[in-house]
Amino acid sequence: MTEHAERLQRAASGVWRRPPLIRDWRYRLALALAVLVYLVLASWSVEVNWTRVAEGASRGLNFLGAFLQPDFTSRWRDIQQGLLESLTMTLTSTVIGILLAIPVGIGAARNMAPLPIYLFCRSIIAISRTFQEVIIAILFVVMFGFGPLAGMITLAFATIGFMAKLLAEDIEDIDERQVEAIRATGGSWLQLMNYAVQPQVMPRLIGLSLYRLDINFRESAVIGIVGAGGIGATLNTSLSRYEYDTAAAVLLIIIGIVMMTEYLSGYVRKWVQ
Amino acid sequence: MLTLKQLTKRYTTGDKALTSVSLEIPAGQVAALIGPSGAGKSTLIRCVNRLVEPTEGQVFLGDTELTGLSSRQLRRARRRMGMIFQEYALIDRLTVMENVLSGYLGYTGFWRSYFRRYPQPVVQQAFKLLQRVGLENFIDKRADALSGGQRQRVGIARALLQSPEILLVDEPTASLDPKTSRQIMRLIKELCVERQLAAIINIHDVQLAQLFADRIIGLRAGQLVFDGQPEQLDAEILTRIYGEEDWNHASESGDVEEVMDPSVSQNHAQVTLRAASV
């Protein structure tokens, strides 16, 4: 008797189970075992130097302890300057990045662009997304020297990949009937974009832009460490001077600002729906 | 007005959606296109304004051969064909007024439409159309705030703002309740009479088609199998279009009986139908 007929018979007698993803139970078992074995072996292969951990634990505690008494005052000027640099960098890079990402994103949507343009835009996205911000930042610091300019260009570049990819995916998911309707009126391609596509993707575009704004702020702290200016540079300096209390102050400010943008973006997203 | 010559559509998947369909629709005629799902009704309508590219054959609108137009010329020709859709296909997040005004896109430049600065007579015309379909109080409402019937009326106003010569109507009532369906069909019919518009209406509701169309065109598996008057539809023809079924009983219990019986005159059938709807 075939398996199908067997299932039918069992269902008729009232026994039915959801068909499993992997038909053969032996394969299922083998797969589960293989994953387990790999997990065990992999954890064994990581060497842990327990004496070093014990030593480091106290330093870590020091660091955490500094959080209880952050020092905002003694290096306030540095913090302030870094913060301003970071905010400028964040805002300009986000705006520039998004403005560049919109055409790339439209070009990377298969339902809007002919194949050559699609491939071109997709490769821009791929390049932008392959390299992590820190790597790009190192390159741009080498090209433009230390400071916020390198940081701004880095973040703008990273924003293009992020925004264009998500925008393209959103455009590919739009309701085609609305596009058809505008096409049927005799509207041009630009009018099609403005009437049929833009209203459908706008809420998400705004939401993503705000999300990217707060990612860029966080990233500005990281890329500052490799010399791209901003609050990251301040953080790096204080860490290398072992001024954990100042570092704690910087981190607390970053947390505060990120939380603020988070709250704000949630609010705006609800409002534009 | 509209002439199809040997129109054939083969999709890239190899499925033949239309096989050598020839038709002529004079100005002012409302033709209902009926047939089972997948018969090619939507494809036929979309081949006319080339939302779907026909594979072979020609389409003429008046003297213009639509099938040979460049994309620029096609856009100009599309202005002369208003389209009404099954799921209304309004732009949900735009206002009712913007949706109606979008019917004017083919006549206006990009920046004008981008800033929504339409010429005053056009806005006036749009408002008049909204009044005609009874939605003038809704101009600033977002399209997704309306009910199905209201949305379809906005869709109709949008199509009419194009000042079309023909309406291409794709299943206008498929997502509507029976009463609203009749109101929408009646509205389309009245507007066609008022403006001497030709129309092709895809519809799967045979009774609605009989009630509101001047002519019935039956399509089955991409081929024209019937072309005639609404009162000619009988069990034999319905079988030709849709396949075997007991057409003499409108419902299993048989209480609305013999609506399709050829022995009952069309007028009589219409009267019963109208009476049933009240």
UniProtKB/TrEMBL annotation, chain A:
List the InterPro entries: MetI-like, MetI-like_sf, PhnE/PtxC
The keyword Transmembrane helix belongs to this UniProt entry's keyword annotation? yes
Give the transmembrane region(s).
27-46, 91-113, 134-160, 247-268
Key words, A-Z: Cell membrane, Membrane, Transmembrane, Transmembrane helix, Transport
**Its topology with respect to the membrane?**
Multi-pass membrane protein
User: Where is this gene product found?
Assistant: Cell membrane
One GO term in the molecular function aspect is: ABC-type phosphonate transporter activity
The family annotation for this protein states:
Belongs to the binding-protein-dependent transport system permease family.
GO cellular component terms, alphabetically, are:
plasma membrane
Keyword set includes Transmembrane: yes
Q: What is this protein called?
A: Phosphonate ABC transporter permease protein phnE2
Q: Which residues form the ABC transmembrane type-1 domain?
A: 83-265
Automatic annotation (TrEMBL), chain B:
Subcellular locations according to the entry: Cell inner membrane
Tell me yes or no: is Transmembrane helix among this UniProt entry's keywords.
Answer: no
Q: Supply the InterPro entries for this chain.
A: AAA+_ATPase, ABC_transporter-like_ATP-bd, ABC_transporter-like_CS, ABC_transpr_PhnC, MetN_ABC_transporter-like, P-loop_NTPase
Question: Which NCBIfam families does its entry note?
Answer: ABC_phnC (TIGR02315)
One Pfam family from the UniProt entry?
Answer: ABC_tran
Q: List the membrane topology term(s).
A: Peripheral membrane protein
Question: TM spans, by residue?
Answer: none
Keyword line:
ATP-binding, Cell membrane, Membrane, Nucleotide-binding, Translocase, Transport
Q: Which GO terms describe its cellular component?
A: plasma membrane
The molecular function GO annotations come to: ABC-type phosphonate transporter activity; ATP binding; ATP hydrolysis activity
> Which lineage do the record's taxonomy fields give for this organism?
Bacteria, Pseudomonadati, Pseudomonadota, Gammaproteobacteria, Oceanospirillales
The reply on keyword Transport is yes
Q: What's this protein's name? A: Phosphonate ABC transporter ATP-binding protein
Residue span(s) of domain ABC transporter: 2-246
